[in-house]
Structures are given as C-alpha cells and as structure tokens.
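REVIEWER CHECKLIST
Item 1: Sequence provided? yes
Item 2: Single chain? yes
Item 3: Sequence as submitted:
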Amino acid sequence: MRVIVVGAGVVGAMHAWHVVERGHEVVQIEREIEARGASLRNFGQIWVSGRAGGEELETALRARELWEGIGARIPELGFRAIGSLTPVRNDLELAVAEAALNRPDAAARGYKLLTADEARAANPALRGAFKAALWCERDAAVEPRTAQLDLAQAQLMSGRTPGSRQPEADQ
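Item 4: Structure as written out by the authors:
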C-alpha cells in the first residue's frame, strides 16, 4: 500500500516514519523545500506538562514514548529526556503549581515542586528571584532543525519511499 502524508515537518515526518515502519510505501508532500512553521516554532519540544488531561494527555505521553523509541534507533534525532522547569515567582503562581501537583494525573506527568535552590541546581542558567519551580519530568525535546531530515533519511534507507535506495550492504 502507498500512503500520502501531507507535510514534512516534525508531525508529518513522524507519521511517515510509522507508515514505513508498518511496511508500507510513503509519499510525503511539503509546500516548501524544507519544513518550517510549527516544526521550528516549538523549539523541538515534546510537551507533556501543558496538555489537557484525559485523551490529550494520553496522546502526548504516547507521542513522547514514540519519540524516545525513534531517538534510540536514530541517535542523530537528538532526543533528550530533559524535563522542564516553570519558575514560580509569587503566591498566585504557587497556587497554580500546587493545583497542578494535586491533579489526578500529576504522577503521569512527573510533576514535582522544587525549591529555588533545587531548581538552580537542576538548571544553573535560571536567574532572578523566584520561590520555587514546577518540574515536569516527562517533557522532552528533539533537534527541531534536523529531526524531520533525520527521519526522512531513515525512510529513504528503508527502500519504501519513492526514489529511495537500499543501503549498499542490503543490496
């Protein structure tokens, strides 16, 4: 079966990757020479912390798991399980962070409230005054400028992308 994927950004590249992984051919269409838009604007974030609960969170956690698996197979992808820190500067922000910690899905997100000293130890680049920081262990990132290119190269090597070739060792 041949599948057409519209868009060669990070999301389109991931869809095309999974089509190839399932043994199908893929044709990927992109309006630009290289992907732009959200693929670059999101800085490569694999964002779990800010997702709505329920199905949206489940989808985000599954996407993170998929990216981690792809990153293990394609190290050039630059998958980094780096988590995220959101500094808490005042009592209102602290109340929001505490509400996040009390969500039923807080453990799935990997939420933890760090003291200011713990947050600075985790990220020495943090500057300015803040009371604490909300840590989300499940947030991650890939290299935004190369992730889709690395996935496309892996697809070409599969032989299931039109115009592709098999690696010489497999011929």
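Item 5: Key structural point noted by reviewer: The mean pLDDT is 83.
Item 6: Recommendation: ____
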